[in-house]
Amino acid sequence: MNTEQTRAPVQYEPLARTPLPDVIAEQLLAEIDSGALRPGDRLPSEPELARQLQVGRSSLREAIRKLHTLGVVEVVRGRGTYVRHRTEPEPTPQFVNWSADQGPAVAELLEVRIGLELAAAGLACVRATQADIDELAARCREHEAARRKGDLAVLVRTDEQVHEGLIRAAHNDLLLQVYLALVPEMAEFREHTLALRRADERFDPHHRSMLTALVERDAAGVRKAVLQHVAALYGEVKAAGTAKTGRPPAGRMLDYATIVATFS
After folding, report:
1. Exposed (0-12), middle (13-18) or buried (19+): which is 125, by Cβ within 10 Å?
2. Does the global pTM surpass 0.90?
3. Which of 103, 132, 179, 208 could hold 169 in an S-S bridge, CB 3.0 to 4.6 Å?
């Protein structure tokens, strides 16, 4: 008997590769842990840091976003990125642990949500009445008022109502039914992300951009605001889950740039 003819060929598994943004983040973390970068230090500008590390600026941005999620750095608009003084308690550890466990499942929900809200964005620009627009504006104001009061339960509810307002403005009953079926599944996700430090500065402007574009019947503008908003949340979950394990979460989670490109 010829064993060479009957033996099954060896099956090789693909070698694991650490994504470049994770490598960048780990290097910056190592410099912070070693004391080479201290609290209050300003990182080099994005072009200069990308040049020094010999990496693309998109990969660098994703690495900085990851470190920002972890509370390691502070991004100050118009001034730069600084190493943070990590003294105050934050929800970040809970968010990191939750993202590592739930990230892939949440990612699937968010991918469906992106598709539904992008469809609603275009339809709403054609069908929304002035009453729909006024209702959405009121929901945005209520959400920002809840942010100022710091009531997480009200924040979750008002955030749900902002996005539901866009879906209702599309005047498509089936689209609304499918979207409402997702809302309970996203409640825990909303609780975690809305509790993140400075979530209002990072996510609430997208609500205002969405409303402004809808008022102008700018379908591309509404879609852009929706995509930036949900993709940013998606990116936060992936970055936090990666930080917990040192590698991307199991499943097929995409990075921020890829999720944007996929739905653009």
Report:
1. buried
2. no
3. 132
C-alpha atoms less than 13 angstroms from C-alpha of 72 in its C-beta half-sphere: 22
C-alpha–C-alpha distance, residues 115 and 227, integer Å: 9
Distance in angstroms (rounded) separating the CA atoms of residues 219 and 139: 20
CB 51 within 8 A of CB 94: no
Averaged pLDDT in 10-residue chunks for the chain of 264 residues = 58 59 82 80 92 92 80 83 65 68 84 94 97 96 88 90 97 96 89 78 84 95 91 79 62 73 81
Helix (H) or strand (E) holding 188: helix 187-194
Quote the CA–CA distance of 223 and 230 in Å, as a whole number: 11
Give the C-alpha separation, 144 to 137, whole Å: 11
Cα(210)–Cα(165) distance, rounded to whole angstroms? 11
Q: What is residue 75's three-state secondary structure?
A: strand
